[in-house]
Amino acid sequence: KCSASSRMVDDDVPRTFRALVESADRKFARVRDAPAYGRGPNRYFHKVFKAYMRLWKYQQENRAALVEAGLQRWEIGEIASRIGQLYFGQYMRTSEARFLLESYIFYEAIFNRVYFEGSKDRGVRFKELRFYARFLLVALILNRWEMVKVLVERFKALVDDSRANFRETNFKEWKQVVQEIIRFMKVDVAYMNTRILRYCSSLDSYPVSLPHVARFHAKKVLKFRDALLTSYHRNEVKYAELTLDTFRMLQCLEWEPSGSFYQKHQTESRENGASSDYSGTSGLIDINLVADMTDPTLPANPRKVILHRPSVTQLIAVIATICEELPPDSVMLIYLSASGKTGHGNLSQSESSGSSKKSSKLNVLPRTFPEQNNFRPGVHVNGKGESALHFENSLWLGPSRSGGSNCLYPGDIIPFTRKPLFLIIDSDNSHAFKAGSSHMFIAFQVLHGAERGETAALLLSPLRPTFKRQTDIDETQIRSQFSLFLTAPLQAFCQMVGLTCSDTDVDVYDDADNIISAAFSGWEMILCSSTSLDLVWAQVLSDPFLRRLILRFIFCRAVLAHYCPRKDSDQHVPFCLPELPNSMSPNFEAVQSAIIRLAGHLKVADYFHFDGS
């Protein structure tokens, strides 16, 4: 009788486990494709998370019985991988670092315990490939470069092994994923061991100017709460849906943790395949470890939405959603990196679709600019009634053959200027957003001066990049020069003049960084004491992220203004609207002297043109 009772209990354990798995999986399917934007409470996430935590706890408490009943190691790995996915999805939705760290903990545990390894089942192999792809993305965003290198090698070897052992299956897409991450690493390798991109209080706040910033108070002060980051270029360097430009900007708009994460959670390199012994079917992952890694002294990160190759309607719909939910006295940052030339948008159908596959789930808004058929004489109009000038003053978010439906016009942004906007436009047609040009006579093509309530802050890239030896630089880096100046100014300076990290002594490089920091500190004090600072800039100056972007823009403008011949300045120098005070102009002594000092320190002063020199 006792034996029969014991068998019933043993049967109940796997039956309960399977029921918990099915319940959790059903809930997971409902949140997997949910849009990662909007401030509304994501109540269902908590239900899914609770279901997986219950499942995780159950397998821990009944592990022996489950193993005896036939539980496979990959099944524990799949549960842990789903929890890692949930955490990462919540990080993408909220930008809270603790979710990213939790995701890393679960993925690293799966990796160390080789949960998926050894299975000859094709379905399990696909689960293992998806695990590596997702873990790579998390490690990449966390800047765990040593782990990324290990993962890339393992991932590549796994794809090669899959192609050899599952010959009837096409692994072409997985090979493309491997090529993506290798290319991403190759382009960004020069910046892996240099200064971090995230905002670090010890590096990006300056003791001398800090009291001035603390005392500064504009008539109106805005809080930076939300950002939308998107890029659309031919042949972009990307991994998954994260392009190199959005990757850098994403990190630029986050706080750097205090360092405890990197000190407490270093992964030992597994040389020659050696690793700790996790051969047992273990499900013991410390889900509370993140409490020891987060920094409670840091403010919350602004929420960020990343759109990869969106359609115009999808982009407008997401902007509308964010603006609608933007809290009072807040500002939204919009970063757009795209070409203004139709030829650059000529992509294959699969390449151009991007995330627009999900756009059918959005409430697609009507076009926000009026249809105008009566263009001024002298403007060429094609057979479809479309003006050539009409297309020239826009950004292209799609293949050129699709016509004007893929044009994003400056006027498309006007309805959203009822809320404060901080726009960064990195494009060879960025000046389409600049009022006052002689050809800007069509009303819906102008943004500055046509706002509906709040004057937008605009940082506009040069129309052409500037390099000492452009032939030595990858095309993708050429078009990202402005974004690099805003996220890594010293690296951008060195790249422009043809220097690399290997060319520069570490101490020389650190001293160059100190020169820039001293300049930024001085410029902060000038801005905080300026009586001519436009309210558009003054109301965001207290925010550390936006203030740093403004300082880096001033640096970028000064560097390029003194590097390029004056006759080419319209093409090669960035522009901002409204204009910053004259005390921040490239020829102002406090600005020019910093560029002279930096160029002299790096022994490239002969490349520049300074007044009086």
From TrEMBL:
Any Gene Ontology biological process: DNA-templated transcription
Highest taxon above the source species: Eukaryota
PANTHER family listed in its UniProt record: PROTEIN SCAI
Protein name, UniProt field: Protein SCAI-like
InterPro entries reported in the protein's UniProt record: SCAI (IPR022709)
Organism of derivation: Escallonia herrerae
A Gene Ontology molecular function term of the record: transcription corepressor activity
